[in-house]
Write a structure and sequence with these properties.
With 424 residues, this protein is of the alpha+beta class. Helix content is 43%, strand content 19%. A hairpin with a 6-residue loop joins strand 2 (27-30) and strand 3 (37-40). The protein binds a DNA duplex (18 and 18 nucleotides) through residues 30-36, 38, 52-57, 59, 72, 98-102, 181-184, 186-187, 214-218, 238, 240-248, 250-251, 291-293, 338, 340, 388, 391-397, 400, 402-403.
DNA sequence: TCTGGGGTCCTAGGACCC
DNA sequence: TCTGGGGTCCTAGGACCC
């Protein structure tokens, strides 16, 4: 059993913690540059405001109903999030912090999950001032589904349990398929072509058929709806694969200098994140593009990807590489609307350094091949899908071992590598 | 005039190899 | 001259999540 605890209108609730006068008044929180509405209190939703609506389109409605409007304050939200998560962590040793406002708890073995959930809800609200909704189910997907009812059904009192021994068909039949975790608007539309309009209809679908017509991810969702755990609890966040920092400009930008300044700011911030996670990067990717909302204007998506001479977390090195990338992608005569930096091929600095010496020189050598292949087979089996490193005789002869390096970061790799060296 | 930011996973298809 | 089957690697793009 899993519980999903979700903070109600999290950013709005955070603002309300310090502004009790806003209780029961509609509240909206805006994105960067006050571009669009990214959080709405229930009262704001009732006015017909929608998540993601551009502020300039909503402004008239907002003014007319005296909606309280805030620019986003991520430090505040991060701080309150940590407090909420700490409180939640007291109720189960197995906790997955899924996002800034959601977490899963392992509810296995609780004899009265509903009472437990209500206790959690009361405690969080009393200790942090943030209201939450709780859904409980046999899988994470079912817990998510239950959460929708906890949130939207006033009868529920903010808690909904789907017991594993009761067929959830009646409940799931009331959940539009679009609201299932893992089903976005595109798949919802395509599923509709097959008359799969509700969570229940999706649960009744054949996973193999779904896998062939859609993909493996959606098939997994079907299995989860059927009560089979396919998405385990992740107690530790997996290591980051990329770090992105990007912003829209308040005004269109044309000059290289302005672009350079923005990219410098972004790469500095990205380097801070990198060091904060104890990682180093091997690749810098830079991008800048024009405003897609003005299709009549000339459009340009500039990107540049550069490998670093050696793994680094040093701001200056990253910045010089980012600037080189920017020079490469910059085209005169465009109005740039957004720019950003991505750091890729991340890993622990030491491991990455060692990898520079770890490129195995086994290509083209036929002696000991048989034994080598046996070992590789074993290793690959253990490492699982997508990691058939070194196994083929074909493949690129040129050394671009990015893929290799990614696998090498896993702790399992270390053992694998030792074995390989023994054979060699 | 004004339309967010930060992530992950999967798949199709081309280049390349034997 | 015929033009296969099996495989890897990479990229782009599509889908999803918050």
């Amino acid at each position: 059993m899993f519980a999903l605890i979700d903070c109600n209108s999290f950013y709005c609730s955070c603002e309300r913690v310090f502004r009790p006068d806003l209780e029961s008044r509609p509240v909206v929180v805006l994105s960067n540059n006050d571009g669009c509405c990214i959080a709405l209190s229930p009262e704001a939703k009732a006015l017909g405001l929608k998540m993601g609506t551009p502020y300039f389109q909503a402004r008239e409605l907002i003014n007319r109903h005296k909606v309280a409007v805030f620019s986003s304050n991520y430090e505040l939200y991060g701080d309150l999030s940590r407090r909420v998560m700490t409180v939640l962590g007291r109720f189960s040793p197995r906790q997955e912090i899924y996002s800034i406002d959601e977490c899963f708890l392992d509810f296995s073995g609780f004899h009265d999950p509903e009472a437990r959930a209500r206790e959690i809800k009361r405690t969080v609200e009393r200790w942090t001032g943030i209201p939450v909704s709780i859904g409980v189910g046999a899988t994470k997907t079912l817990a998510k589904a239950a959460n929708r009812f906890a949130k939207n059904d006033p009868q529920s009192g903010g808690v909904k349990v789907l017991p594993p021994d009761v067929d959830p068909g009646d409940t799931l039949a009331r959940l539009p398929v679009r609201e299932v975790w893992g089903v976005g608007h595109r798949w919802a539309r395509r599923l509709g072509d097959y008359r799969i309009d509700t969570a229940e209809a999706l649960r009744r679908a054949d996973p193999a058929w779904i896998a062939s017509v859609f993909n493996a991810t959606l098939a997994r969702t079907v299995r989860e709806l059927q009560g089979h755990t396919c998405i385990p609890l992740e107690l530790q966040p997996p290591p980051k694969q990329q770090i992105v920092v990007s912003r829209s400009f308040g005004r269109p930008v044309t000059a290289f200098e302005d672009l350079r300044e923005a990219v410098f700011t972004h790469v500095t911030r990205a380097a801070e994140k990198l060091r904060g996670d104890g990682l180093a990067a091997q690749v810098v990717h830079v991008f800048a593009h024009t405003n897609a909302f003005q299709p009549e204007a000339p459009q340009y998506h500039g990107t540049a990807t550069l490998a670093l001479p050696r793994p680094t977390q040093d701001t200056r090195r990253l910045a010089s590489q980012a600037e080189a990338g920017l020079r490469r992608l910059y085209r005169n005569g465009f109005c740039y609307k957004k720019a950003g930096v991505m750091l890729l091929e991340l890993g622990s600095p030491n491991v990455l350094q060692n990898e520079l010496f770890a490129t195995p020189e086994t290509d083209g050598e036929t002696f000991r091949t048989r034994r080598l292949m046996e070992v590789l087979d074993n290793i690959n089996r253990r490492l699982g899908r997508g990691t058939m490193f070194l196994a083929g005789q074909g493949g690129h002869q040129s050394p671009r071992p990015w893929r290799l390096r990614r696998e090498m970061r896993s702790p399992r790799y270390t053992t694998a590598w030792k074995e390989l060296r023994q054979v060699n």
